[in-house]
Design a protein that fits this description.
Layout: E1 2-3, H1 4-8, E2 13-14, E3 17-19, H2 25-43, H3 59-64, E4 68-75, H4 79-88, E5 93-96, E6 104-110, H5 114-130, E7 136-141, H6 146-155, E8 161-165, E9 168-174, H7 178-196, E10 198-204, E11 210-216, E12 221-226, H8 230-241, H9 245-256, H10 261-267, H11 272-275, E13 277-281, E14 296-303, E15 310-315, E16 320-324, H12 330-340, H13 346-358, E17 366-370, E18 373-379, E19 382-387, E20 390-395, H14 399-410, H15 414-425, E21 447-449
Antiparallel strand pairs: 1-7, 2-8, 3-4, 4-6, 5-6, 7-9, 8-9, 10-11, 11-12, 13-14, 13-21, 14-15, 15-16, 17-18, 18-19, 19-20
Amino acid sequence: MMHGDDVASAGVEVTTQIVSKATEIIMDILKLAIEREREAARRDPSKKQQGLSGGEVTYRKLQEGGEVTSIPSFDKNDYGELIRQSKKMNIPVAAIQESEKENTLTVFFNVKDESALSAILKDIYNKKLKEPGQPERMVTIEKEQVEGFQMYCSEHDIPVCFMESKDGVKCIFGVEYEKQIEAAMQKYNEMSTELNNTDISLFKDEKGKVKFRIDDGTEQKQLTMNFSTKARLERVLQERLGYSKLKAVEAANRLGAKLTDEQLGYYLSGSRQLEQMDTYEKDLKFDDDNVLLEKFSFARMKFDEEDAMRLTVTDDRGHFIVISEKNRDRAAIEREINQHLNVSDTETVKAIMDKVERLGFIEEPKQVHFREYLIERDTTSSFTVRGGSTVVRLDLSDRDTARKRLRDTFGMSEAKADKIIGKAQKQSVADNLLTKAKARVQQTADTLKNKKRERGSRK
């Protein structure tokens, strides 16, 4: 294990995790991560992120700059300095703090800026080395071990920086995490020993199709499957052989070392994020969508480890909201639309909420009868009155105009108009609520469902 100046003089380059430009799902995963931060801040305002707005841009803005790469398990305490220096060097970055992780962030930036970010990180660590009581530590691992070890550190919220050198990859961390890194190394070595007793190979069946064979000598288990992506192999190893995520990654990496360049291209083409999805449907549309929704996109998804479906609504500027099927309160969703989509126009808010309702992510509007009229509270600021075949939608915040329109439309008295307006205002606590029946048509485009379906073989 290296100490002090060994870290500063190692002559290393930052190693990062490439995120494909074609991996569209990453954007929605980031939205969910950001929404978790919003929820945490709403529950406890004292935990609201501070100092994360300096030189940051949105992930969508980064995509405009070209291919995106990331630094996982980045020390949250160093982020302010990273922002300061990246802003000075005109380098856009974005960061996500995942749920239940207090120490680390995932930092995103453009591949073209990788050399500049490497220089910034070296400068940050050199400065930290000069601070009293802040010595850094370093362990050297093989390049093939980085993905699994990085995954372990990320899962355990251990801030690390991986840098590549001639004799391997250096994992740099603070002295306060030394015991955790030692435990991680021990865990990794134990898992590697287990895999040494596992035969991982390729073969062709009688029809000439390439297949995988995993013969686990330790567990006395065997697995044969069609050639697939690395991400799918990892999932199958976890499901059928009971491997941990870390062991599945390492086994898949060992198999990848035995592939031809052509096979490797397909093998690495799978999206790990997509494999985490039970359901993913993007660009949800109805034939009769409101024209006001043209600049908004809707995507529905569910992760394997979560029991609730989620819906993202995104505008053409990158603003978005995330709605869970577990929280379908109309007033709360309307506040999200106002605050995070920056939409205040009543008609546009109504159009968004109507579509969210059709998709099953919002409770139905409350209705109450008053004599021959049906009163429906659409949003916090609007309501609809139906009388026979006549329908009028009114602004609840403008009582005078609402009263006039009710009198002109239905020929009612001013007193009756005031009673209807009053019932609309009190509707959230009305006792005689009726259920509004509305068919939910599930027409979607570019839909991925039941991802565990067999995908066939590939030579």
